[in-house]
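re: ur question from yesterday

yeah so i grabbed the chain u mentioned. its 485 aa long if i counted rite. heres the sequnce exactly as i have it in my notes:
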Amino acid sequence: MRPTVKLLSDELIERIISEGRDILCKIGVEIHNDGIISMLSDNGARVDDKTNRVFFTSSLIDKAITLAPPSFKLYDVLGNEAVDLSGSNVNFTPGSAAINILDSNTNKMRRPTTSDYIAYAKLMSKMNHLASQSTAFIPSDVHERISDSYRLYLSLLYCEKPVVTGTFTIEAFEIMKNFQLTIRESKEHLATKPLTIFSCCPTSPFKWSDVTSQNLVDCATYKIPVEYISMPLSGFMSPVTLVGTLVQHTAETLSGLVISQLTNPGTPVLYGGSPAFFDYRFETTPMGSISTMMTDCAYNEIGKYLGLPTQAYTSLSDSKHLDAQAGLETSMGATLAALAGINNISGPGMLDFESCFSLEKLIVDNEICGMTLRLIRGIEPKEDFPSLPIFDELLKEKHLLISDHTRKYLKQEEYFPGPVINRANHSRWEEEGCSTLHERAGKEIDKLLKSYKPSRLPDEKKRELTKLMEAEAKKFGMNTLPQLQ
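ran it thru and got these structure tokens back, copy pasting raw so excuse formatting
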């Protein structure tokens, strides 16, 4: 039996959805995109031209829910299936868009560079419990107007896994789409085998900017999957109660769903988000708060009730270093999210309220993800009945270390982490140098980078990606890109 966690009754889910729908129809959503306002108006929505507020209809919402696919898959750069976003399948991906990196040598935060990103992308090819990569942090050694496309470029160049990404501008979507068309070779193949998910974020409360709403339309045009990242802050930009925040999250997410499905019916979507319980003591948005984690798991239940695959930013920490707090918050978030059956769990590698990335933490978090994936497989008998023969052997041999039963099921029953997790006794740990977690993670990074094998993406496609990136960089005065490794 698979273990699960459930926070909401069906009756409460239905009431939250009903209230969210009511908000869309009676309070409406502020949208700063004339084309989208016109599309919604043409489909029966009422528009207040003075405030750009759009009032949805029940039929529009029903239509969008019906049209959205209940699941989809992602494929790697070679076209192989990599991520199954259906049912209660659980997949992990790193956190996204950090502005700092925790320097491996000084253990202090600094701005990331291209070389940091390349090291990250190489490591991601070895993270066997992280199904997809993300555009994890923002290199500071390129023009800010290409920092979004540049991250995707490096990810596609160095790692074969699909990518969770996003764009900071309307204009950048063009090249990011062209990268994907270069790899898939046609719009039809890209729709058939999606390579990326784009994060699209409404602004709380109840607002879509020109950029983010246009991102929804652009992605839908090419059937590029999107995840809606509603970010209500409980007690600040949303009601202080978890139920009130869930009502707001529902309304904001459903508004995005309507825009996507009206643009192109059947566009793949994730019912996602990144809410937080606002900590008024420090004026921060803690992702490691238990209330934040509970909100994530709860809106996942709402998304599943609506028949949609889900996403959440959890399995990350607000700590500033790879310490006990980082392990506590990350492992609790990952465990709850996996037990809740969230389909795409974002966060590994992330520190400091989603603003800092750590390669060492990525290595540790990969092990946390491995443990949680073992957890949700649950407990089931494996030739345990009748049990008498096994215990007869134990009494006869005085151990079961080399029994057929042990050798057959040992690696299925136990999750054996890599060398970053120390399970030696104290004397052996001393003999081997008294290493710390940070030291072991650093050593593992060095080993994995030395064993890195280049992506099998054909060389001609790599050259075309570079040609596109160089042309984009020149638009903003960069005649050369940073040297690649």
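noticed a couple things. The longest strand covers residues 81-85. also The chain has two domains: 10-60, 67-375.
anyway ttyl
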